[in-house]
Amino acid sequence: MNFAGHHILGIDQFERSDVDHIFAVADQMRPYAQRQRMTTVLEGAILGSMFFEPSTRTRISFGSAFNLLGGHVRETTGFESTAIAKGESLYDTARVLSGYSDVIVMRHPEAGSVGEFASASRVPVINGGDGANEHPSQALLDLYTIRSELAGRGRDIDGLRIAMVGDLRFGRTVHSLSRLLGRFNDVSVRLVSPAELKMPEGLVEELRMAGHEVIETDQLEQGIANVDIVYSTRIQEERFDTQEDADLYRGRFRLNQSIYTAFCEPNTVIMHPLPRDSRAGAQELDEDLNDDPNLAIFRQSDNGVVLRMALFALILGVEDQVDACSRPVNWTTERRF
Fold first, then answer.
1. CATH number at residue 110
2. Is residue 232 scored above 90 in pLDDT?
3. Mean predicted lDDT score pLDDT of the chain
4. How confident is the model at residue 246 (pLDDT cuts 50, 70, 90)?
5. Which residues does 120 contact at the CB level (< 8 Å), separation at least 6?
6. CA torsion angle for 199, 205, 208, 209 (degrees, to 10)?
7. Euclidean distance between CA atoms 57 and 36, whole angstroms
8. 153 and 235: one domain?
9. Same domain, 158 and 274
10. For 193-229, how does the pLDDT look when each residue is reduced to its tens digit (9 = 90+)?
11. Does residue 291 share a domain with residue 238?
Protein backbone atom coordinates (compact mmCIF):
# COMPACT_ATOMS: atom_id res chain seq x y z
CA MET A 1 0.00 0.00 0.00
CA ASN A 2 1.16 3.52 -0.80
CA PHE A 3 0.26 5.33 2.41
CA ALA A 4 1.11 8.90 1.36
CA GLY A 5 -2.04 10.93 0.81
CA HIS A 6 -4.42 8.04 1.41
CA HIS A 7 -7.31 7.54 3.83
CA ILE A 8 -7.22 4.91 6.60
CA LEU A 9 -10.81 3.69 6.83
CA GLY A 10 -10.75 -0.06 7.43
CA ILE A 11 -8.61 -3.14 7.83
CA ASP A 12 -9.41 -4.41 4.33
CA GLN A 13 -6.93 -1.83 2.99
CA PHE A 14 -3.95 -3.66 4.51
CA GLU A 15 -1.85 -6.59 3.44
CA ARG A 16 0.45 -8.22 5.97
CA SER A 17 3.43 -6.36 4.49
CA ASP A 18 1.62 -3.07 5.16
CA VAL A 19 1.09 -4.01 8.80
CA ASP A 20 4.76 -4.96 9.15
CA HIS A 21 5.74 -1.59 7.64
CA ILE A 22 3.49 0.35 10.02
CA PHE A 23 4.98 -1.52 12.98
CA ALA A 24 8.54 -0.83 11.82
CA VAL A 25 7.78 2.91 11.61
CA ALA A 26 6.05 2.77 15.01
CA ASP A 27 9.24 1.31 16.51
CA GLN A 28 11.12 4.36 15.16
CA MET A 29 8.62 6.67 16.89
CA ARG A 30 9.22 5.28 20.37
CA PRO A 31 12.03 7.70 21.40
CA TYR A 32 9.76 10.63 20.55
CA ALA A 33 6.69 9.20 22.28
CA GLN A 34 8.84 8.55 25.37
CA ARG A 35 10.19 12.14 25.34
CA GLN A 36 13.79 11.05 24.78
CA ARG A 37 13.93 13.26 21.68
CA MET A 38 11.63 15.76 19.97
CA THR A 39 10.97 16.36 16.28
CA THR A 40 9.47 19.19 14.25
CA VAL A 41 8.91 17.19 11.08
CA LEU A 42 5.25 18.31 10.89
CA GLU A 43 5.87 21.92 11.93
CA GLY A 44 3.06 24.02 10.46
CA ALA A 45 0.80 21.05 9.65
CA ILE A 46 -2.74 21.00 11.05
CA LEU A 47 -4.76 18.01 12.25
CA GLY A 48 -8.52 18.40 12.20
CA SER A 49 -9.82 16.25 15.07
CA MET A 50 -13.58 15.64 14.77
CA PHE A 51 -15.13 13.44 17.46
CA PHE A 52 -18.91 13.11 17.45
CA GLU A 53 -18.91 10.42 20.14
CA PRO A 54 -17.26 10.48 23.58
CA SER A 55 -13.57 9.62 23.56
CA THR A 56 -10.60 9.96 25.87
CA ARG A 57 -7.74 7.73 24.65
CA THR A 58 -8.39 7.81 20.92
CA ARG A 59 -8.98 11.56 20.69
CA ILE A 60 -6.14 12.61 22.99
CA SER A 61 -3.62 10.05 21.71
CA PHE A 62 -4.22 11.12 18.10
CA GLY A 63 -3.74 14.74 19.16
CA SER A 64 -0.65 13.94 21.22
CA ALA A 65 0.82 11.92 18.36
CA PHE A 66 0.42 14.85 15.98
CA ASN A 67 1.83 17.31 18.52
CA LEU A 68 4.85 15.07 19.14
CA LEU A 69 5.60 15.22 15.42
CA GLY A 70 5.55 19.02 15.64
CA GLY A 71 2.05 19.64 14.26
CA HIS A 72 -0.95 21.59 15.52
CA VAL A 73 -4.38 20.21 16.46
CA ARG A 74 -7.80 21.81 16.02
CA GLU A 75 -10.53 19.90 17.85
CA THR A 76 -14.29 19.61 17.38
CA THR A 77 -16.23 17.49 19.87
CA GLY A 78 -19.95 16.71 19.72
CA PHE A 79 -22.53 17.53 17.05
CA GLU A 80 -23.80 20.51 19.03
CA SER A 81 -20.60 22.46 18.44
CA THR A 82 -20.72 22.13 14.64
CA ALA A 83 -22.90 23.28 11.77
CA ILE A 84 -24.16 19.69 11.46
CA ALA A 85 -26.53 20.67 14.28
CA LYS A 86 -27.89 23.28 11.86
CA GLY A 87 -28.47 20.73 9.13
CA GLU A 88 -25.13 20.82 7.29
CA SER A 89 -24.33 17.59 5.43
CA LEU A 90 -21.24 15.47 5.92
CA TYR A 91 -20.31 16.34 2.33
CA ASP A 92 -20.31 20.09 3.00
CA THR A 93 -18.54 19.65 6.34
CA ALA A 94 -15.83 17.58 4.68
CA ARG A 95 -15.33 20.06 1.85
CA VAL A 96 -14.99 22.95 4.28
CA LEU A 97 -12.83 21.39 7.01
CA SER A 98 -10.46 19.72 4.57
CA GLY A 99 -9.60 23.23 3.42
CA TYR A 100 -8.45 24.04 6.95
CA SER A 101 -6.50 20.83 7.69
CA ASP A 102 -3.72 18.66 6.31
CA VAL A 103 -5.22 15.45 7.71
CA ILE A 104 -8.46 14.69 9.58
CA VAL A 105 -9.33 12.11 12.24
CA MET A 106 -13.05 11.48 12.63
CA ARG A 107 -15.28 9.46 14.96
CA HIS A 108 -18.99 9.17 14.21
CA PRO A 109 -21.80 7.04 15.70
CA GLU A 110 -23.07 5.71 12.36
CA ALA A 111 -21.39 2.84 10.49
CA GLY A 112 -20.02 4.00 7.14
CA SER A 113 -20.22 7.68 8.02
CA VAL A 114 -16.45 8.25 8.10
CA GLY A 115 -16.14 6.69 4.65
CA GLU A 116 -18.88 8.99 3.38
CA PHE A 117 -17.06 11.98 4.87
CA ALA A 118 -13.74 10.86 3.38
CA SER A 119 -15.22 10.62 -0.12
CA ALA A 120 -15.76 14.39 -0.04
CA SER A 121 -12.57 15.35 1.80
CA ARG A 122 -9.66 17.00 0.02
CA VAL A 123 -7.14 15.61 2.55
CA PRO A 124 -6.54 12.16 4.07
CA VAL A 125 -9.04 10.97 6.68
CA ILE A 126 -8.41 8.41 9.44
CA ASN A 127 -11.36 6.49 10.83
CA GLY A 128 -11.38 6.95 14.62
CA GLY A 129 -14.40 4.65 14.95
CA ASP A 130 -17.67 4.56 13.00
CA GLY A 131 -20.49 3.13 15.08
CA ALA A 132 -20.23 -0.61 15.65
CA ASN A 133 -18.35 -1.03 12.36
CA GLU A 134 -14.57 -0.54 12.55
CA HIS A 135 -11.77 1.08 14.51
CA PRO A 136 -8.65 0.39 12.41
CA SER A 137 -6.06 2.31 14.43
CA GLN A 138 -7.17 0.53 17.62
CA ALA A 139 -6.78 -2.85 15.94
CA LEU A 140 -3.30 -1.88 14.75
CA LEU A 141 -2.19 -0.72 18.20
CA ASP A 142 -3.72 -3.85 19.76
CA LEU A 143 -1.78 -6.10 17.41
CA TYR A 144 1.35 -4.00 17.92
CA THR A 145 0.90 -4.57 21.67
CA ILE A 146 0.40 -8.31 21.17
CA ARG A 147 3.59 -8.40 19.09
CA SER A 148 5.51 -6.49 21.78
CA GLU A 149 4.20 -8.62 24.65
CA LEU A 150 4.97 -11.91 22.86
CA ALA A 151 8.41 -10.78 21.66
CA GLY A 152 9.79 -10.95 25.18
CA ARG A 153 8.84 -14.62 25.22
CA GLY A 154 10.43 -15.44 21.89
CA ARG A 155 7.04 -15.65 20.18
CA ASP A 156 5.43 -13.97 17.19
CA ILE A 157 1.86 -13.27 16.06
CA ASP A 158 1.83 -16.42 13.92
CA GLY A 159 0.57 -19.22 16.15
CA LEU A 160 -1.19 -16.78 18.51
CA ARG A 161 -3.87 -18.10 20.87
CA ILE A 162 -6.34 -15.36 21.82
CA ALA A 163 -9.64 -15.16 23.70
CA MET A 164 -11.94 -12.23 22.94
CA VAL A 165 -14.40 -11.74 25.77
CA GLY A 166 -17.54 -9.67 26.24
CA ASP A 167 -19.66 -7.69 23.80
CA LEU A 168 -18.47 -9.09 20.47
CA ARG A 169 -21.59 -8.00 18.59
CA PHE A 170 -21.24 -4.25 19.03
CA GLY A 171 -17.52 -3.99 19.91
CA ARG A 172 -15.87 -2.41 16.86
CA THR A 173 -12.40 -3.00 18.30
CA VAL A 174 -12.79 -6.78 18.15
CA HIS A 175 -14.31 -6.53 14.67
CA SER A 176 -11.24 -4.75 13.32
CA LEU A 177 -8.82 -6.93 15.29
CA SER A 178 -10.46 -10.08 13.90
CA ARG A 179 -10.05 -8.79 10.35
CA LEU A 180 -6.41 -7.94 11.04
CA LEU A 181 -5.66 -11.40 12.44
CA GLY A 182 -6.77 -12.80 9.09
CA ARG A 183 -3.45 -11.56 7.67
CA PHE A 184 -1.47 -13.94 9.92
CA ASN A 185 -1.01 -17.70 10.20
CA ASP A 186 -2.22 -20.46 12.52
CA VAL A 187 -4.17 -18.26 14.92
CA SER A 188 -6.54 -19.86 17.44
CA VAL A 189 -9.44 -17.61 18.44
CA ARG A 190 -11.83 -18.17 21.35
CA LEU A 191 -14.95 -16.00 21.18
CA VAL A 192 -16.49 -15.74 24.65
CA SER A 193 -19.84 -13.95 24.88
CA PRO A 194 -23.54 -14.36 25.58
CA ALA A 195 -25.39 -15.80 22.59
CA GLU A 196 -27.10 -12.45 22.04
CA LEU A 197 -23.74 -10.62 21.80
CA LYS A 198 -21.87 -13.07 19.55
CA MET A 199 -19.35 -11.96 16.96
CA PRO A 200 -21.15 -11.24 13.64
CA GLU A 201 -21.25 -14.43 11.60
CA GLY A 202 -19.52 -12.82 8.63
CA LEU A 203 -16.46 -12.04 10.73
CA VAL A 204 -16.37 -15.56 12.18
CA GLU A 205 -16.46 -16.94 8.65
CA GLU A 206 -13.63 -14.62 7.59
CA LEU A 207 -11.46 -16.02 10.38
CA ARG A 208 -12.23 -19.59 9.38
CA MET A 209 -11.63 -18.85 5.69
CA ALA A 210 -8.18 -17.56 6.71
CA GLY A 211 -7.47 -21.01 8.12
CA HIS A 212 -7.81 -20.08 11.79
CA GLU A 213 -9.36 -22.21 14.49
CA VAL A 214 -12.44 -20.48 15.94
CA ILE A 215 -14.24 -21.70 19.07
CA GLU A 216 -17.39 -19.93 20.27
CA THR A 217 -18.51 -20.36 23.87
CA ASP A 218 -20.52 -18.64 26.59
CA GLN A 219 -18.32 -20.12 29.34
CA LEU A 220 -15.66 -17.70 30.56
CA GLU A 221 -13.55 -20.27 32.39
CA GLN A 222 -13.38 -22.56 29.38
CA GLY A 223 -12.71 -19.71 26.98
CA ILE A 224 -9.71 -18.19 28.77
CA ALA A 225 -7.82 -21.43 29.41
CA ASN A 226 -4.74 -22.19 27.30
CA VAL A 227 -4.45 -18.83 25.54
CA ASP A 228 -1.67 -16.26 25.21
CA ILE A 229 -3.97 -13.21 25.29
CA VAL A 230 -7.27 -12.47 27.00
CA TYR A 231 -8.80 -9.45 25.24
CA SER A 232 -11.73 -8.20 27.29
CA THR A 233 -14.32 -5.65 26.16
CA ARG A 234 -17.01 -3.71 27.98
CA ILE A 235 -20.72 -3.91 27.20
CA GLN A 236 -21.29 -1.24 24.52
CA GLU A 237 -24.31 0.24 26.27
CA GLU A 238 -24.54 3.14 23.79
CA ARG A 239 -25.45 0.64 21.02
CA PHE A 240 -28.42 -0.86 22.90
CA ASP A 241 -32.01 0.36 22.53
CA THR A 242 -32.32 0.95 26.27
CA GLN A 243 -30.08 1.04 29.32
CA GLU A 244 -32.13 -1.81 30.77
CA ASP A 245 -31.21 -3.99 27.79
CA ALA A 246 -27.51 -3.29 28.30
CA ASP A 247 -27.75 -3.95 32.03
CA LEU A 248 -28.84 -7.52 31.36
CA TYR A 249 -25.27 -8.34 30.36
CA ARG A 250 -23.25 -6.10 32.65
CA GLY A 251 -20.83 -8.05 34.82
CA ARG A 252 -21.60 -11.38 33.11
CA PHE A 253 -17.96 -12.03 32.12
CA ARG A 254 -16.00 -10.51 34.95
CA LEU A 255 -12.30 -11.36 35.11
CA ASN A 256 -10.69 -10.95 38.53
CA GLN A 257 -7.46 -12.18 40.08
CA SER A 258 -8.92 -15.39 41.48
CA ILE A 259 -10.49 -16.42 38.15
CA TYR A 260 -7.30 -15.47 36.30
CA THR A 261 -5.11 -17.51 38.65
CA ALA A 262 -7.43 -20.51 38.55
CA PHE A 263 -8.00 -20.77 34.80
CA CYS A 264 -5.34 -18.82 32.86
CA GLU A 265 -1.79 -19.88 32.11
CA PRO A 266 0.69 -18.07 34.40
CA ASN A 267 1.88 -15.58 31.76
CA THR A 268 -1.38 -14.94 29.92
CA VAL A 269 -1.46 -11.27 28.88
CA ILE A 270 -4.60 -9.30 29.78
CA MET A 271 -5.70 -6.60 27.32
CA HIS A 272 -8.65 -4.22 27.00
CA PRO A 273 -9.20 -1.33 24.57
CA LEU A 274 -10.48 0.84 27.44
CA PRO A 275 -12.43 2.34 28.99
CA ARG A 276 -13.09 -0.55 31.31
CA ASP A 277 -16.33 -0.17 33.22
CA SER A 278 -15.33 0.14 36.88
CA ARG A 279 -18.85 0.79 38.15
CA ALA A 280 -20.37 -1.60 40.68
CA GLY A 281 -22.00 -4.50 38.91
CA ALA A 282 -19.73 -4.25 35.86
CA GLN A 283 -15.96 -4.60 36.46
CA GLU A 284 -15.25 -6.71 33.36
CA LEU A 285 -11.62 -6.33 34.44
CA ASP A 286 -11.56 -6.14 38.20
CA GLU A 287 -9.36 -3.57 39.89
CA ASP A 288 -7.72 -6.35 41.90
CA LEU A 289 -5.77 -7.11 38.70
CA ASN A 290 -4.09 -3.68 38.77
CA ASP A 291 -0.83 -4.93 40.26
CA ASP A 292 -0.60 -8.05 38.12
CA PRO A 293 2.41 -7.62 35.76
CA ASN A 294 0.49 -9.44 33.02
CA LEU A 295 -2.11 -6.64 32.92
CA ALA A 296 -1.02 -4.84 29.74
CA ILE A 297 -3.84 -2.31 29.37
CA PHE A 298 -1.71 0.74 30.14
CA ARG A 299 1.19 -0.44 27.98
CA GLN A 300 -1.49 -0.94 25.34
CA SER A 301 -2.77 2.64 25.68
CA ASP A 302 0.81 4.00 25.56
CA ASN A 303 1.27 2.14 22.28
CA GLY A 304 -1.61 4.13 20.84
CA VAL A 305 0.65 7.16 20.58
CA VAL A 306 3.56 5.48 18.75
CA LEU A 307 1.21 3.67 16.37
CA ARG A 308 -0.72 6.85 15.52
CA MET A 309 2.53 8.79 15.10
CA ALA A 310 3.50 6.15 12.54
CA LEU A 311 0.21 6.54 10.67
CA PHE A 312 0.59 10.33 10.47
CA ALA A 313 4.21 10.06 9.32
CA LEU A 314 3.27 7.56 6.60
CA ILE A 315 0.14 9.36 5.40
CA LEU A 316 1.95 12.70 5.19
CA GLY A 317 5.05 11.12 3.64
CA VAL A 318 7.61 12.18 6.26
CA GLU A 319 8.58 8.82 7.80
CA ASP A 320 12.14 9.19 6.45
CA GLN A 321 12.53 12.79 7.68
CA VAL A 322 11.62 12.43 11.35
CA ASP A 323 15.15 11.94 12.69
CA ALA A 324 16.61 14.71 10.52
CA CYS A 325 14.26 17.20 12.21
CA SER A 326 14.95 16.03 15.74
CA ARG A 327 16.92 17.10 18.80
CA PRO A 328 17.05 16.16 22.50
CA VAL A 329 14.24 17.42 24.72
CA ASN A 330 15.11 20.47 26.80
CA TRP A 331 12.71 20.02 29.70
CA THR A 332 12.68 17.82 32.75
CA THR A 333 10.05 15.09 32.86
CA GLU A 334 9.51 12.20 35.24
CA ARG A 335 10.42 8.81 33.89
CA ARG A 336 7.08 7.22 33.06
CA PHE A 337 7.81 4.54 30.47
1. 3.40.50.1370
2. yes
3. 93
4. low
5. 90, 91, 92, 94, 95, 98
6. -150
7. 22
8. yes
9. yes
10. 999 899 999 999 999 999 999 999 999 999 999 999 9
11. yes
